[in-house]
Amino acid sequence: MSLKAKDTFKPFRDQKEGLTLSIRGESIPMLLSYHQVRQAAKDWQTFSSDAPFRVPIPSEERERSVRQLPIEADPPEHKRYRVLIEPFFRKPMQADYVARIDALIERTLRQCAKHARFDVVREFALPIQSYALTYLLGVAETEGDIWAGWGTHVFRDGEDSEQKGSKLEAYLRGAIAQAQTGKDADNFFVALNRMTIDGRPLDDVEKLGISNLAFAGGRDTIINAITYVMWYFAQAPEALIAAAADARRINLAVEEFIRVLSPLTHIGRICPEQGGSDGRVSLCWAAANYDPDVFDAPETINLARSPNPHVGFGSGHHACLGAPQARAILRSLIRSLVDHVSALRIAQETPNLEPYGAERRAVGFAQLIATLALQ
Question: Which of 46, 205, 214, 230 is the most exposed place for a label (fewest CB within 10 A)?
């Protein structure tokens, strides 16, 4: 069974006027073609990330007090921060780490199977993302209970976004302060307190900016990706079973899920030439991932697609630090579904919709009610 996905930006990609997004009183031109997006991602002198609060769309001046590092910095400053934290984000490449993710997903499947119905978003994907993050950051798994309580987005999930941002910053300040006397180098906050840049220790603002990104950067995107794979398995279990035949096919399937879903629709860059000294431009990963000049039959979900040069994890200097974590979780999820689940049925689905002009783009689900039977 070949499922279809929707290319939301198809009506705009070939039009000369393209698409300009209006959000919070700001007009943001969107780059939609694959080659435009890839080129802009490389050209940091023209399309700059040195824009505190304004790399995410919508911007986050209301939600946080510090710039997120390294994502809101240009080279060479970006690289100096990135190399400090990269070792933590490479953990998912280790076999013992993957085994922990496998155990987490199997355990969560078994917990959900005990209920007549469960919400895949909040009762499955959210706890997996939260507890897997404790493994990445080397903290007690019980911290995941707190993080899961923040919801699917640390800023925008049913509460006042400024209050949620303040709550996150208070938590991070406390964690950084508490780790000052810590000795466990595998603990992210302990390591953060020991890091130096340009021969000096990181200051409090830098520590807070780095840790803010670690918590805000990959939360809803991973949750949406997990939920989408679950939805797909309910629709086409035979296709996912075939994709799980060996490690290579699983890898191909994960890349196709990321391409099709494009869990982060776009990202902002400051581009004076496009819109004045304060103008922003959108690099639209989702549109690039459906460009027919690059992807054959882009609206067909082909789990064996190869090659698959998608930009679902970004491109260029700012390629996603959390990509190994997302890939490890999705690979494990595919294996676990095939090995342990005999039936998954969707009882109710509510897409998470983003507006773009007259079009609406579904990015995962706001709610996905399912029933689950184990083998």
Answer: 205
